[in-house]
Amino acid sequence: TDGEQEDLPATVIEEKQKRRRPDVIARRVANADTAVSVVKTTLNSFCKEEGKALSWESVLRDMNKAVLEAYVLANIHVVRLCQASLPIKPLNQNFFHRCMTAVSSGIRESQDCEQLKQSVALYNEWRASDVSRAKIEYITRGWQQNAAKMMVTNATNAINLNFYRHFHKFLKRKYGFNRRQAYATLKSILDPKYKEEDPIVIEWRARIPRKHDGKLDCKPHVLLPLTYMFLSDIEERNQANKTTPDYVEIRSFSLLSYKRGFECSHFKVCKTGLRALLKRAGVDVPYEGAGWNEVADNWRRVLFHIDKFKTANRKFDGEIVTDGKSVSIVMRKPKRESVTSELNAKDYDVVWGLDPGRTDLFVATTSMERYQVFVA
Length: 376
Hints:
Blueprint: H1 2-7, H2 10-16, H3 22-33, E1 34-42, H4 43-46, H5 49-52, H6 56-83, H7 93-103, H8 114-126, H9 143-175, H10 179-190, H11 199-205, H12 220-240, E2 267-269, H13 271-280, H14 290-303, E3 315-322, E4 326-334, E5 361-365, E6 371-375
């Protein structure tokens, strides 16, 4: 109550109040009357000569290496906790940001994350000592924060979207169900208001994490123990039937997503990320905050061809997504006003109607690789 809050110290009251980021507030205000669109082009055509001279290659190389190793560390961490039956903390942006800093040079993991420290120590035992680490100079804020947010999305999608499929296949293997039986059993297990007495359904309903309304709790860190059980069942069956003739191994999976292949990932470059690029290039720029916010737009116009992609309604939103070759430019345009009332023909003197008719399109080609488009 207000009376009880007045008796608390000012520091306690401040801690209880929810912190609000000014950039998030500004984005929500902008979303109220504008829509986001994206223009794709090459990074070379978007950058001016000053922009091409920035340290794109070194920053993207370090980011790709940090994200790759952070995914490996995150998988090691959750597997170790599942094997030890230890609780898993939420896989939020802070978790993946800590993973990136832990596998990079320059920053060591804080002392208050004991379980993550043990996972980092295990990861370092397996990692080759002669392999250089990603340099995180100036990119821990902006670049790595945006990457950590994307890693949260990837991990959430990988667990939530595949949970039903993994559970369905697990029931088929464990109980010998066919596809229809496994579907019916799984539907009953996940049903918020199941009233029958099937022992298999009741057994698994007790293991399913649920919300207060009885529906499945889809938080990734809550579903991971069950997902690990499905993975362990696959590995045990493959190991037990390793010498069985004509046995086809069951395809396994990873608990969390990985960065696969040698292609560069796309990373968001926001206002803070732009400052990091300039600092990497040795440019003296103001500190983060009001000083940098005042000059950030001027720097964008110096480095990028913003006016080339602007229109009367489409404005640059201050963010791009790039992999070093292509770039997606985030733009904003006013939202279309929705028509709330139906049109009445009596309100108009003359009403014109357009009949598009039927349009057929086909392309004719020859052996000489010539082609002609015909529209009727």
